[in-house]
Amino acid sequence: MKWVVRILAATLLLIIIVGVAVWYNFPRYAQSLIDRAVEGTGIRVEMHNPGLPNLSGMDFGRLDIVFQTPADSCSNTSSRYTAVVHNGSLFWTRPASGDPLSKDLLPEILPLGIELRADSISIEQHGTDISFSDNLPVITGKLSISRRKGAALKIIPDSFSYNIENGRLVSDRLRLDSICYAISLTSESDWVQQPALLSIASLHTEEKAAPLNNFTALFGMQRDPDNPCVMSLSTCSVELFGLRASTPEIDYDLQNKQTSFTLVLQDVPLEKLPGFKGADSSRPLASGLLNGTVPVEFRDSTLSIQNASIRADSDTRLRYYSPDGSPLLSIEAVTSGKSAELFRNLDATIILNSDDEKVSGFALENVSSTFLGGNLSSGPARYDPVEKKSSFTLELKNVRLPEHIRLHGDFSGSLKGALSGSVPITVKKGAFSINKARLSSTGSGSITHAPPRKKRDSSDSRFGTPKPDANYAYSKPDLVISRNALGKTTVGFTLHTLRRNTSGGELLLTDPEGQLTLWQDKNNPSLVSLSEFSAGLMGGSVSIDKVDYDMGKQTAETVLVLDSIPLQKLLDLQGMKKIFATGTVAGKIPLIMKDQKFEIPAGKMDALQNGQIIYTTTPEERVAANESMRITYEALSNFLYSELISSITMAPDGQSLIRLQLKGTNPSFQEGRPVHLNLSVEQNLLDLFRSLSISTNIEEAISEKALQKQSK
Q1: What is the pLDDT of residues 680-705, one digit of tens each?
Q2: What is the pTM of this model?
Q3: Strand, helix or coil at 192?
Q4: What is the phi-psi region of residue 429: left when phi exceeds 0, alpha when psi lies from -120 to 50, beta otherwise?
């Protein structure tokens, strides 16, 4: 008996030692066990760096799985895949037995629950650039191990589930991000995936976000027996260029690799679109609703949009504000007071995953549509793989955009005509730039500026309430527009005419041209610069080298350059009826503007050549005049000047000093002896311009100067 006990004890110890040895050496023969388990299935599994197992699971460094799907009648090709699982843990559990009295430790059918957790999983399709990856995957399943006498162990799968929560699918240069989909396969459903919600947050190409995102649909692998090669998605929606569109069903032909469907836009708020979301809710950049239909056809990686239509409701408009936050102008999509088509006959071709290195993986090309009464089109977008930027050119033809512009605040107007031209656009890192866009119009328009009237002062009692309203009429604008990625914008302009009308008269500029610079200083967006400005003025010319105007502070400094201005035009402008003159003048007038008031520190204007001044009088005036006045009339009746020099200064309140120096002769006066006249006029120019009495003051100054000379 003693030996029996010893033998049993030794046998038990040997069993324990063998079990420990088997457990300790499991990593060495784990691969052979896996090979035997998958033998004959066409699946190859390689486990790297397996850990020591325990009663509930084991860890491993990497798991490589290679498998092949059989060819079906639709594609006639089979596909081979490699799945790699990194830093995983495999857990197994035996479900609680329904029979608490069961004492069978090794039943013929052993049900097991398995769970795989890992740092990451990736799946690649051989022979293609298609791959899928996911971080922190959790894959669960149920299976049974059959142990029958005289037969090898048999694994019988029952179900499999994998909730993809942040997957990524890459196909060449295209990338789908944040994929969510619940995979659930069971033996009861014949291992066919049932419809579940599929969502894809964004589509990227060449690391750039594409205008397709937030796609959702119900998707399963069930096939219609009558159409076995059609894969269906239902209750589909997607954001296209920020517009939420939907379609009840998309049927994709697996054999021909094509589909067609119609996206429906319904009450899409314009202010929700990218670029139109204002930082201040009290100052919306856009408003209104968009509706429409977008017929889509997809074939051979090419997405075609044909005859799409987008309507805007009566409140659809874009808004722009002045630096102080008040409305400046708006662009209204509808001018008839009711909804109207914004885009009609919209056609576009989008190539997904293009092999052309000169275009991006997501290429938008051959876009055309009617837009605001004209036509809008774009050629292929070109992609620079080195700079990672896309470039395309918008073509406009007879787009009646000016007629949709409305001015607000102190401005009002009526803009007419259509725009035509090209707009080269470059998109890089989410920002766009414009390189020398050219837009022109044969139309015209007028803009009225009516600033708030100031309180009446003492001069108003003498000359009436001033009317600061000014009307500007332009014709045939020609624009050259550039914008950098930071927003700095330059607008080179040429007009046929620019006419300014006020209560004091009219000022006509012919062929004005120059360059405006906007948003050049992010710290002071109110700063507007005008440079290289020139225009025809009264038969001569006026020019400004550069002026920086701060719209917030209402300040500016510049020098007004006048050249070849006919002297007679200046006299007519001042309402001088009795003085006639020939010759032209030129000079520089420095201007300082502050709070809508002008200051002239030291302006100068000189005659460019000899000329003639004739001061006319009637016989009645000569008879009534005294001797001094008759001498003055006689000297200036035919004054041939050889020198005309003038200077002017003006304070912000309008108080000015004008000095005029004349040298010349009158052949009919005192045998043509030289005459020198030095005139000074001190007056408030604002009052004088308002009353048009400056001519009288100059005439009086001439008479007084003549009397002084006569008394010498």
Answers
A1: 777 776 665 555 444 445 555 555 55
A2: 0.68
A3: coil
A4: left
